[in-house]
Amino acid sequence: MNTAPDRDEIQRDLAAILEARLGLAGLGSLEHETRFFADLGLASIDAVVLGEAIQEHYDRAIPFNLMMADIGSRSERDFAIGELVDFLHIQLAKSGER
Amino acid sequence: MPRITASGIGFHYQQQGKGPDVVLVHGMTGDLSIWFLSQLLGTLSRSFRTTAYDLRGHGYSDVSPSGYTSADQARDLLAIMDALGIERAAVVGHSFGGVIALHAAVIDPERITALVLSDPSFAALRHLEDLNRWGHWESFRQEAANAGVELSGEHWYDLARFFDQVMHLEGERLLKFRQAVGLPGFKRLMRLAHTTCGEDAKAEAGLTLECIGSVDQPTLALFGSESPFLATAASLSELMPRCRQRLVPDARHRAPEENAVAFVALVEEFLLEQHSTVPASRTQP
């Protein structure tokens, strides 16, 4: 049975993880377009720590190396919450099918 | 978040892969995310147990008021290896991370199997560099001026002077600087500005020309093709008996960011050559 969470659930999880692990309180306005670095004021090292926290939360390995490398190849070196939600939705669906 | 205590400091580290050990050391004012963004950590983890850590005062590691010379931080590196059960390792260091890596090889040569020195600048070799030849210097200085910090040609590499200016920015210049470097970058710089990091980074700290020349581990001196430190690259090849020089095309001082693909390929090729191993993914027909 596929128990992978849907996109809304993932976004709620992300807001909770960002608050608990990275100290970002009051993320009620977290939108798909919200950018991790430019809008939330975080840095690439925070993305590394967030990746770990997400894997711990879902208790499964997620290939964050790929996402970090993708960010590294972008001229603006930033990503939107919606992109992270989509990435996690695909990855969690894959592992949920196992 | 994996943390380990070494030299009395809590260090954040990341480790991936299995095999011979490789340790990655970032530069001053950076953090270990450079190895994720460049994909070096993921690439090397196909063949090596690859460990990256945040230097003291950087990233998610603890800040100490002092202890930032290459000698201090080489001892940190060796203590982290002790704490993680890494007996011997090849070490890849970028910028000041390269200075730390080489210093560790001087302090405890038996534990360092090979070195990749990515665009380091050594206090003992600084007299060789004519930074006026660096075509990008003027544009870099202009960027800093736009951010409210005036850098002179003699002192651009002087972190202490840079930190001193940053700490005394006020009003509109402070706002401009915060906007230019971003809030996380500003917080990181301010945290370091209150330590001896700036002065310590300038110190030779015992890493003399003789010490550099005594290191006989296989060494790759990897510099950007437009690096401001090409005289250092040539000098390392002359001083160190087993040092070879390679240039990363289309890169200045930050090859892991400016040309990550070429940088990672050259580092992996060198390390595989030292260990004569083949990535698991390449053993498939």
Task: Please give a handful of descriptors for the protein shown.
heterodimer; A: 98 residues; mainly alpha; Non-ribosomal Peptide Synthetase Peptidyl Carrier Protein, Chain A; 4 helices; B: 285 residues; alpha/beta; Rossmann fold; 2 domains; 8-stranded mixed beta sheet; globular
Describe this structure as you would to a colleague.
The complex is a heterodimer of chains A (98) and B (285). Chain A has 98 residues and is mostly helical. Chain A has a single domain (7-96), classed as Non-ribosomal Peptide Synthetase Peptidyl Carrier Protein, Chain A, CATH 1.10.1200. Helices cover 57% and strands 0% of the residues of chain A. Chain A contains four helices and no strands. Chain B has 285 residues and is an alpha/beta fold. Chain B has 13 helices and eight strands. Chain B folds into two domains: 3-129 and 205-282, 3-Layer(aba) Sandwich (Rossmann fold), CATH 3.40.50.1820; 131-199, no CATH class. Chain B is globular. Chains A and B meet through helix 2 and helix 3 of A and helix 1 and helix 8 of B.
Distance between the termini of chain B: 37 Å
Please tally the helical runs of chain B, counting DSSP H or I stretches of 4 or more residues.
13
Beta-strand content bin of chain A: under 5%
Binned strand content of chain B? 15-25%
| Residue share in helix of chain A | 55-70%
Counting helices, strands and paired strands, the structural category of chain B is alpha/beta
CATH top level of the largest domain in chain B is Alpha Beta
